[in-house]
Design a protein that fits this description.
about 270 residues, alpha/beta, Rossmann fold, Trna Endonuclease, Chain: A, domain 1, five-stranded mixed sheet, about 45% helix, endonuclease
């Protein structure tokens, strides 16, 4: 990871100063800050920023819901599955983005730099680790011991880890090739002919899966006439989720990291 794009408002002198300090800090390192030139008269600001975002490994956003350009760039980075760090006031972060890595904004640049450096060090996870069966238990056990390490794994890596874990244990699974948010990520077929929808939700360890996520999975199960469903999250579940699944006729299981560690026992309960 050696190219960083920073999204911020040029109208805030304080944030512009912090951004300049970040740029200065990395100027003589192997980290390159991709800088956008602000031109009030230009109509191609969005197109120029998308080119830079395409080329970045990490997208840092000084979030401001009132700035349409920042929100556009954030949405574009999300669509491109970029690694993202949000900097700002936690109360200003939209609910659907609270699972992203977050740094509290501080006037002390050293606090921000420390957290960026910590994120970069935690993110040095090689993709081949997630496809190597010998590494699965090591990754999962470390994830339980070190919440920051788990938070640093991006959604695509986590989904790959779960999928490969199922495959390496001899389970018959098939990736969902439709749009990613169609309600599930892959299908598990049991030897008895049971079809089980699997939905993987990579959240921060302190974030919780809500009823809306369960409803979407259940909706897909009903449409496809599926026998059971499993939500697998790196976070937690709200109390209302358990009450919800106990009140519906569909069979839905709630998994956490612990279930992945005890994959054999967890799978037996699905059969």
């Amino acid at each position: 990871m050696n190219k960083i794009y920073i999204s911020y408002s040029s109208n805030c002198i304080e944030i512009e100063h912090l951004t300049s300090r970040i740029y200065d800090y990395y100027i003589d390192t192997n980290i390159k800050i991709l800088k956008k030139e602000f031109d009030k008269s230009s109509e191609s600001t969005f197109s120029s920023s998308t080119v830079l975002i395409d080329g970045c490994d990490l997208f840092i956003c000084f979030i401001d819901k009132r700035d349409s350009e920042i929100m556009f760039e954030l949405g574009y980075a999300l669509g491109k599955n970029k690694k993202i760090i949000l900097i700002g006031d936690y109360r200003d972060i939209p609910y659907d983005l609270k699972n992203l890595t977050y740094i509290r904004q501080s006037e002390d640049i050293n606090v921000i730099l420390f957290n960026i450096e910590r994120y970069l060090s935690l993110s040095e996870v090689k993709n081949e680790d997630f496809s190597n069966p010998n590494e699965h238990s090591i990754i999962l056990e470390r994830a339980v011991r070190e919440p920051n390490y788990l938070d640093s794994i991006d959604p695509i890596q986590f989904e790959k880890l779960v999928y490969n874990l199922f495959c390496s244990n001899g389970l018959n699974v098939e990736m969902n090739t439709n749009y990613r948010d169609s309600g599930y990520d892959f299908m598990l077929y049991t030897p008895t002919g049971k079809r089980i929808m699997i939905e993987v939700k990579k959240y921060r360890t302190t974030s919780k899966v809500s009823i809306s996520t369960i409803r979407q999975l259940v909706g897909s199960m009903v449409i496809e006439h599926i026998d059971a469903g499993v939500i697998i999250t790196s976070g937690q579940y709200t109390n209302s989720v358990s009450h919800f699944i106990n009140g519906i006729e569909q069979e839905v299981h709630l998994w956490t990291i612990d279930n992945l560690i005890d994959i054999h026992e967890s799978i037996q309960k699905l059969m």
